[in-house]
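Before a colleague's protein record goes any further, I have to sign it off. Would you go through it and say whether the fold makes sense for this chain? Take the sequence as given and treat only the tokens as open to question. The record follows directly below this note.
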Amino acid sequence: MLNFKLRRLPARVAVLWLAVVLAGCGLVFPDNMQRFTPADAAVASADPRATQAGLDVLAAGGNAFDAAVAVAATLGVVEPSSSGFGGGGFFLLFRAECGCYHFIDARETAPAAATPATYLDQAGNPVRGLTVSGPLAAGIPGEPAGMAYLAENFGSKPLAELLQPAIYHAENGFPMSPRALLGLRFRKNTVSRWPAMAEIFLPGGELPAVGYVVKQPELADTIRRFAAGGHDGFYKGETARRLVAGVQAAGGNWTLEDLANYQVVEREPLVTNYRGMQVVSAPLPSSGGIVMAQVFNFLSAYSEEQLSGPQGQHLLIEALRRAYRDRALYMGDSDFVDVPVERLVSREYMDAQRADVSLTRATPSASLQGVAEDGSAGDQTTHFSVLDSDGNRVAGTITINTWYGSAFMPPGTGVILNNEMDDFSIKPGVPNEFELVGAAANAVAPGKRPLSSMSPTFLESDRGVAVVGTPGGSRIITMVLRAALAWLDGATAEQMVSLKRFHHQYLPDSVSYESGAFTADEIAALEAMGHSLKEVQRPFGNMNVVTWDIGPNRVESASDPRGEGEGRVY
């Protein structure tokens, strides 16, 4: 079972495994790596203000986990199109003092009143827009609970101190960026329906100009209550009452009990190995770790020569086709459904999947047994990477799902609610906003967490360590996977975030790609094999990476040139 294989440490810090500790501490090795620590610390995030917040915490003596809270909270204020206190996410941690991995699942949950019927009409068909816009689209937020848990269990500084940058930017404002304005254009009609949301983001009822200072005083007050009360300062008391009152008044189905019952879950990270590189990534309810394990197992049977050029691109596409098919068929919240993880990530399973793959011809997705298709991916999530000078690290991917989430804000809170109910499979075979299809394993159920593609990841090899992640909806897994392959081939942090991208996800049966991802000859070769290629009009992803090359003890930090972020070394 790949999840629990003994890890192969970099040569300079290699030691024998002595134990695997399962009681909430993840995979453990006895060498605490103090013999080898990074020469520098680093933060990479989607916004320079968030990066600065993390660096300030590190400069004040905080650790990577403290910095992660400050970065996440600040992003939730200055990047409202992509994440926030009304969303959720995953935090992958490495603690250098014990060599422990932790995975904090702060994913949103379905309200107790939510069922598949909530989103279907009398004929059993999905009601357009209910899972995307307005209060019924929102799951119970997990990000505040995740930040509180991270600070309480791993940080060295009080939560209230770590939230000060977020409070400052909420109260004093930040200039509207071109990217945030782009998302607002997409969501203007929905934003305008809800007065509390429109008051902040549509001054005078119109789109603001780039540079318009967005002030969020009610959000600042909400964060202050959170700072004073920790977890309960958000999930109980005044904030909870305002959230529930606003949701119910607008036709939603949240209750005070939904909020009071929310808890994060610590899970075992999923670990796999490929050509001497260990990949530590997200377990269910993220599909990322399983899909990457499947793809790496699929590719492991081929030679480096076979995996080069158009043939290598073809084989990667075929691996993605089958792994995303399994995502649609089998994957969901493993606390609610029995997902055959051990079988899916086994070498033998992918050996069987590989049996019908041609080296020269594409496999039509319709020929694979799977979910029938019935009937825009984006980058509206956010990711940050942190490494401190002790070797602690955090890969955090947080989200409110699509642009500005549900575009609904309960009055008096300043909190933009997510639209993660769209990540459930409302009806088998019906695609969601990211054109992903699903089956019963990912059906709506009270308290259930929707399947995710968020894939915060650590890459470890003889070379060193990379902390990797990106937004991008269904394309997240492909982007992280290709960054991992680039890291294995010696890419720098800057090269990883700049890599041109392509993607296949089983259905729709086409390869989407950025301009420049393929040469003209590669396009001709792939089309001759039977692949359907579609160039996207807008680049996708917003990757943030921190790397540590152990040999020269060099730390690098890079933010995606497609975005507006910043990677800095401290």
Summary: The domain at 270-377+455-569 is CATH 3.60.20.40 (Glutamine Phosphoribosylpyrophosphate, subunit 1, domain 1). The mean pLDDT is 91. The chain is about 30% helix and 15% strand. Residues 310 and 524 are 9 Å apart (CA to CA).
